[in-house]
Every structure is written in structure tokens, then in C-alpha cells.
Amino acid sequence: MKRLLILLLIFAMILGATACNGSKPAITPSKPTDETNTTQTPDQTGESSEKPVTDESTSPVTAANSVSLDEQLLVDQEGVAITLTGLDFSDDYYAGKIKVLIENDSDKNINVGIWAIAINDIMIKGDLYANVESGKKLNETITFDKGDFADAGIEVIKTIDVIFDVFDSGTYEDIFVTELISLTTDGSEDYVQVYFAGDQLVFDQDGIKLVVRDFVEYEHEHYGAGVNYYVENNSENHVYITAGETSINGFMVEGGLYVKMLAGAKAYTSMDFVAEELVENDIYVITEVETSYSVYNPDTYENYFIIDNVKTNF
After folding, report:
1. At 100, is the secondary structure helix, strand, or coil?
2. How remote is the C-alpha of 106 from its chain's centroid?
3. Distance between CA atoms of 113 and 178, rounded to whole angstroms?
């Protein structure tokens, strides 16, 4: 009898696990019935971007890299000097660090941050938040996330393009934003950075190209799914790109897309959708995303152009 009860208990546990696994439908894109380009804009159909061959086994920058940068003065403006003192790959937690010395000979307490930074012409998040009191110095580092480097396929730091933002630590008002500073590392001459786009062109206008790469479902408590993009800024201007009113399968949703682009840079970014909104609208299979895109000046916030009502089918 005891053995029978145990068997019945195991059977009940299996049934319960099966029921739980089937209670949360996956959010997935549907597959197109043909191989044609499925992104359409008001004046563009059927175009596609190149998709370079890539090595999916790329790994983040590690301490094995032998690239280096000589010590050099990067900024000397309004009593603030920023000196690059070298690269550091000794911390396994980060993909790499840029070491800087910040000297504040102004009469204000300041904060120094990154306005924008690109590694190998790819927009990357570089963490720097330095608080330097008047008359003081500070050794700091600009750090890079391993995941960001892996996602971008960056194996070696070859070029660095950076703009610093220096602002008053009391009022948070900008004191100055630097010009673009461009650096090339020693020992990286043989490295070739690979860029991977997608096959659904959204728009290519005034030097700005945006391509849908793929759809992804997140295992995240807030975001349920997203659309990944590849972006090129081949214009002479730094730009912001954002998305406006967005719908999925005809239902209005919040679509978060925001990317800052240096002139000549590329980026891998995404439009993310809130899981709760998808569930509330019974969206478990995404067939169509429709949105508008704004490209505008980061200083004046004036639009360079707007692309309205772009549909991407999955």
C-alpha cells in the first residue's frame, strides 16, 4: 500500500508540472511564408542591406590583449584637464578599462561623464561618473561591460571615439561638452572589426540606415520581447534616434527605442516591449510591428527627419 501511495504521488507531481509548464504561452514571432523582405516604408519596399559573414564564436576583450595607448592629454579646457594614462585589462569583471587622470583647477566642483563613446566605430556604453572638487585631482577609469563587447563582436579595442561631458556638481548645468576625441591603439593594426546587420531594411535616408536584425523573447520580469536593430550613421552629424507611437498586431503598446549615434558610428540596439502589456492584449505571437522613427539633433532636439508608419512583418 505504501508503494502504491508513492507511485500515485509521483504521478500527481508529473501532472502538476505539465500543467504549470503549459500555463504561460511563449511570445514568438510568426514566420513569413516566403523569403522576401518584409519591412515596408511609405516609399521603400523590397530593399535589403548587406549582411556580412560573422563568426558567432566571438568573445569579449580579455587580459590577453596586447594593445596599448600612450599617456596623452585629451582635454584641457576651462581649468579642467583629462589625461589618458593607459588601458587596463587586468580586471576580469570588465571587458576593459581606460585609465584617466582628471585635474580640476577651476573654481567649481565638477562631475565628469561620458556624453557618447564608440569602440571600433560601434556605440558602446562606457561608465564614468567622476566627482572632482575644485583644486583636486582624481584617478578614474572608463569601464566597459563584457556583455556589450560580446554582443557587438568586439574582440580587440582598435579605435576609441569619445566625447566627455563636464558639468557643475551642484547645479548639474553643463560647463562644457568636448569635441570628438579619436584614438587608435598600438598593436591592433591587423585586427578587422566585423559588423553584422540584418536583412530587413527599415529606412536609409540622409546617411542614416536602420535595419531589423531579429526578434527576441526575454526572460525578464518587466520586458517580454523586443526587436533588435542594426544602425549606421553615415552622416556628418551626431544624432538621436527614437521610436514614436507603436503597435503590435494592431494593438497600441509602449515601444522603447532610444539610441545616440556619433557621426560615422554604428550601433546594435533594440525596441523593447513590456511583458504585462503583451499579456493584457493577448499577444503571444507577434506578426506585425508598426511604428514611426524620429532622427533629430542632440543639441537642439530639432528633427532631421521623421519616418512615419513603418510596418515590419515577422
Report:
1. strand
2. 34
3. 11
What sections of the chain are H helices per DSSP? 2-21, 146-152, 275-280
| Domains recognised in the chain with CATH numbers | 72-184 (2.60.40.1150), 195-313 (2.60.40)
Q: What's the CA gap between 162 and 299, in Å, rounded?
A: 16
Comparing C-alpha atoms, which of 57, 59, 39 is closest to residue 230?
A: 39
The neighbour count for residue 170, using CB atoms within 10 Å, is: 10
Nearest to 273 by CA among 239, 225, 230, 307: 225
Per-residue burial over 114-131, b if 16 or more Cβ lie within 10 Å, else e, is bbbbbbbbbbbebebebe
Cell numbers for 166: 563636464
Indicate the residue type of 191: Y
Chain segment 44-74, per-residue pLDDT in tens = 333 333 334 344 444 556 545 789 999 999 9
Q: What does the DSSP assignment read for 282-308?
A: T--EE-EEEEEEEEE-TTT--EEEEEE
Q: Which amino acid is at 64?
A: A
For 80-94, the DSSP string reads EEEEEEEEE---TTS
Tens digit of pLDDT for each residue in 3-46?
A: 444 444 444 444 444 444 444 446 666 544 444 444 544 443 33
Question: Beta 223-233 vs 208-217: how paired, if at all?
Answer: antiparallel
Q: What are phi and psi of 18, to 5 degrees?
A: -65, -40
Q: Judge whether 59 and 314 are in contact, CB under 8 Å.
A: no
